[in-house]
Amino acid sequence: MSLTLYYGSGSPYAWKVWLALEHKQLPYELKLLSFDRNEHRTPEFLAINPRGKVPALIDGDLALWESTVILEYLEERYPERPLLPRDPQARARVRRIAAEADTYLSPLVRPVLAAILYKPPAERDPTAIAAAHDALLAEIGRFAGYLRGDWFGDDHLSLADLTLYPHLRLVQRAEERVPEYPLVHRFPPGITAFMRRFAALPYHDHTLPPHWKA
Ligand SMILES: N[C@@H](CCC(=O)N[C@@H](CS)C(=O)NCC(=O)O)C(=O)O
User: Fold this and answer.
1) How many domains does the chain have?
2) Pairing, β 62-65 against β 56-59
3) Same domain assignment for residues 32 and 100
4) For ligand 1, mutation pick of 54, 69, 95, 167 (most atoms within 8 Å of CB)
5) Residues 102 and 152 in one domain
6) Are residues 48 and 110 in the same domain?
7) Is any atom of ligand 1 closer than 6 Å to the C-beta of 10?
8) Distance between CA 159 and CA 170 in Å, rounded?
9) What's the 189 CA to ligand 1 centre distance in angstroms?
10) Closest atom, ligand 1, to C-alpha of 17
11) Does the C-beta of 52 come closer than 6 Å to ligand 1?
């Protein structure tokens, strides 16, 4: 087995794959690409993923991209410490929640980060920030309704949790950087508890985006 993960610091899609590798206790090598230096656009990386996006995973002869597909591959190829339930209906539910996190929640996180983190203080627009917050909170409320146990796959950590958490944690990060526009205290209690549980996983701190630790 020779697994290599290409990732970018702070990419929620790459982070979920990193978490899956850790959860499954697989040996792997990490290659950090700098977006600032356009390392995801080099001929070497485009030969691995012609789309020039992270994550990309190499496993022997296979070069794979698209984070959800990578997770599914890891699950099938390395079934120990599963990230999907056995029951087909429970599996479908976990996959659906993961798909909803990437498809509907993630696009509502981006405007929050853009309005707060990616603007100089003088250009931050409180009305736009409030609107972005409200739209995201409505979506997060929907996810709170999906929780039926400790995890989104009920009693077992699953790829739904690994997919959702990085998106939510980016919001917390924005708030840590710019505390003037707090949002996390408005998260539903179930989501706050979920985030605390996730942050207590033994491999969580190790996988935090490296530039956050700098
Ligand atoms: N659908 C892709 C999304 C991957 C993606 O958008 N990656 C971003 C980082 S979060 C990226 O590499 N962006 C660089 C670019 O588009 O230039 C997946 O799930 O892997």
Assistant:
1) 2
2) antiparallel
3) no
4) 54
5) yes
6) no
7) no
8) 18
9) 30
10) 20
11) yes
Query: Counting atoms of ligand 1 from 1, which one is nearest the CA of 55?
Result: 20
Structure tokens given for 94:
């976990």
pTM of the model: 0.97
CB 183 within 8 A of CB 136: yes
Domain assignment present for residue 130? The answer is: yes
Contact 150 CB / ligand 1 (< 6 Å): no
User: What's 167's domain CATH number?
Assistant: 1.20.1050.10
Picking from 16, 43, 77, the residue at the C-terminal end of a domain is 77
Residue 53 beta carbon below 6 angstroms from any ligand 1 atom: yes
Strand-pairing partners, residue 30, are: 5
pLDDT tens for the chain, 214 residues long, are 689 999 999 999 999 999 999 999 999 999 999 999 999 999 999 999 999 999 999 999 999 999 999 999 999 999 999 999 999 999 999 999 999 999 999 999 999 999 999 999 999 999 999 999 999 999 999 999 999 999 999 889 999 999 999 999 999 999 999 999 999 999 999 999 999 999 999 999 999 999 998 7
